[in-house]
Amino acid sequence: MSLDFTAIDFETANSSNASACAVGLARVRDGRVVATAGWLIQPPPGHDRFFELNTGIHGLRAEDVRGAKTWSEQLGDLAAFAGADVLVAHNAGFDMMVLRRACEATGDVHPPYRYVCSLQVARKLYDLDSYRLPSVAAAAGFIDFAHHDAAADALACAHIMIHAAELVGAKDIAGLAEAASVRVSRVHIPESADQLLPLVGAVA
Question: 69's torsion region: left (phi>0), alpha (psi -120 to 50) or beta?
Fold first, then answer.
């Protein structure tokens, strides 16, 4: 057993969960970050308008993603990086909904990812005034990162989970979830299993 997982963070162009415009990823093996990645995404058609509210948060505009891969084009890259890992995100319900809704908008199917929420873990294991990502990351010893940069947020999330595992002596992600009394959940996938086969094969 070892502490292996992939942390993930999405930024969105507007209030639609399908409007993914950036993703960040951090791969952890045996409790250490061994690889990071991040890229811009053209949001799915119909979900590609950039709201000033969102731009004010992450700084991205429509012109920034014009030459980026579409959601469908980048999905294989995302799946290849994550492999069969459990995904981890801070407020994971949001990020998993982005994954699900963007796929629904484009007709793509994602692998049947399992996931754990670092926000839920933090609320159980840390005594803090705020459980926003920068506050929890600082408690875990990871400070001065560019919050709302997807790659930086994913890396911060990874360090939170590594530190949390050390606090409770967890050897793997399941042990950490159990110690924090949180669920290892699964992202909903369509019932059409034959659609799933190409991406599952790509990450097996």
Answer: beta
pTM given for the model: 0.92
Looking at residue 68, its amino acid is A
Query: Is residue 56 included in any domain, yes or no?
Result: yes
Beta strands in 69-125 (DSSP E): 69-70, 87-89, 114-117
What is the pLDDT tens value at each position of the chain, 204 positions in all? 799 999 999 999 999 999 999 999 999 999 999 999 999 999 999 999 999 999 999 999 999 999 999 999 999 999 999 999 999 999 999 999 999 999 999 999 999 999 999 999 999 999 999 999 999 999 999 998 999 999 999 999 999 999 999 999 999 999 999 999 999 999 987 654 444 434 333 322
**How far apart, in whole angstroms, are the C-alpha atoms of residue 86 and residue 161?**
12
Domain that holds residue 84: 5-188
For residue 66, give the CATH number of its domain.
3.30.420.10
Domain count, the chain: 1
Element (H, E) at 31: none
- Cβ distance 158 to 88 under 8 Å? yes
Place of tokens 């399941």: 174
With respect to residue 72, please indicate whether it lies within any of the assigned structural domains.
yes
